[in-house]
Amino acid sequence: MASAKNSNREGWWQRWRGGADPAEDAALANLDDRGFLTAVYRKYLGREIDSSGKRYYLSRLNTSISRRKLIRAIKNSAEARLYRERQTRVALLQHHWKNQEKQSPLPRLGRYTENNSPHIALIGTCLVEGLLQTALTINWSMQHYLMDSGPHDPVPQLSAEDFDGVLVQLTLRSLLSMVAENGDGDLFHLRADVDWSDLRERACQQLQTQVQRILAALPDGLPVFFLGFLEPMPRINGLLGPNRQHGLYALIRHLNDTLEEALTVRHRAFYLELNDLRLHYGDSTAYDGYVSHFTHGGIRSSRQGDLIHLGILEKVQAALQVLRGDQQVKLIITDLDNTLWKGVLAELDEIIPLEVTEGWPLGYAEALLACKARGILLAICSKNEDITTRENFTKVWGRRLRLEDFCAIHISWQPKSQAIAQILAETNLLPEHVLFIDDNPLEIAEVTHAYPQMRTLSGDPEQWRHLLLYSVETQVAHVSAESARRTELVQAKKQRDAAAENMDRTAWLESLQLTLQVETMTDGTHPRYARALELLNKTNQFNTTGQRWTDAELQNWLAAGGVLLAVSAQDRFAPHGLIALALLQDNAIIQMVLSCRIFGLGIETALLAEAVRQIQADGHEEYQGHFTATGRNDACRDFWHDQGLAWDAEQNLWRGSAAPEWPTWIRR
């Protein structure tokens, strides 16, 4: 979250909402006249003060009008009355929205434990004032910075310490005015001589330039979310006119495609779709293109408009949660009968694939494969005869869904909690990162009793597809090469474990042909930086401190002299990619993490050996190791002791001077 400095600065806002006298409280907070006016405008009008209002009131404050009278005047204005009405409407909508909506655009598989709203910098024109008002109404800390999308409009100078993220809305009409003839960004699309191909190319170039300019001016590491443009109705050229290939509708769709593509290659900037919220809530009274010109691209003050604004804020909060790696699902375990197909196959005289998969099972299978593509593991846990069920699985799904899509398959008559225990051992995952899906509530109860931290899903199977595709816990920011191959890598681990059964440990380790590559990262430009940040925030079991890092925090730490050692591994079964990290600062190893897929191979010892070598090469004879128990990192509780370090109780850290031997079976 943002710094304490920002929280203190926003303190007056929270006290006002609690009923404090604004005139007296502002005086006690030692706000100058400019700060006082900013506070009054945000409190009673829900927006930042405009330049004309600032000039007018600054000239009159403490000469012809007191602060208390100024508050009374603004509080009784027509604009203030409309804002109060909006506050009431939004508050009622939020209650209904949280408690009644069955198909939320971003549902959750469990109770969300984050109680604090993020601190957001909002960049845009007056088009985003409605979003600001909604945010303030639901107690978000949001600061609006007025900025048009022209080439010379200054980007606000922000501090990464004051905000958790930045939300940007580019102004469509301004962007189009820069590329349309004679600066006509409003009505040019109605001219018969428009060269749409040329206009599209120039508009996309200008859009990319604006994105680069904004990102270059914002602090490195601070997540930046760009809202997509509102797309006009497809029938902009009439009922029977050409609507899709040329014209404004096609142009704006292409601009959104270009914006998303431009942001996909950046690890700290993200595209947030806006038009899906219009589809979800309806836009007959939300999109201002029904009453204003199409290129204005705004959201009206209405019930539907407020719901869209709430949806935007939910997306921002969910995106920050995804970036932190909070409460993420890493493994989905599914039942089979009445879960992955209709009915109990063993009781059917004839299996007709279309009859048992058409409808919700096909949608469920689609969602499972979509989750697999995001790097989420799939497993099967079913009470059935093993060989027959595997044969029936292939009959039912053919090549659409395959047994090799699942990293673990347990089909037997043992209690499902026992089978799941074996799956957890094979995948080295903690129960809180697992989702178990079964149609039978008794099976759900049995598994929940054994693993109360595990999330479960049952009930109406027609809801499963939506929950798997859109739940916050199944979202990812980037799919790294390692994530895309996670099923293959777990299967490779099982092959390694199987090979170990018939060999002594020394011979087995030598047979792996394990090779490591160590890279040093000193800033966020390294091509493997995004994967390193992902590993740092997703690793729980071998994580010596459990610390989570935002992009901004890690980049600031690197800029202050920190060094990130990153290890990639490959053995005879598979290339494993980047699987271990050590964070070095002077003579301290402040954190080490190791992927759970490669426990027990000596990679942590090799990484420590290289870390100590670099520390000693920098002139330090002694090095330090840090450990913080998290309740989930018992796998590395004895790591420093086992490597020969001594505990310093006074400093609460481990001390060592000798580097461990590089394991003889590991190549480099």
From TrEMBL:
Residues 29-80 form the DUF4214 domain. Gene3D superfamilies: HAD superfamily/HAD-like, SGNH hydrolase. InterPro entries: DUF4214, FkbH_domain, HAD-like_sf, HAD_sf, HAD_SF_ppase_IIIC, SGNH_hydro_sf. It holds the Pfam family DUF4214. It comes from the Bacteria. This is HAD-IIIC family phosphatase.
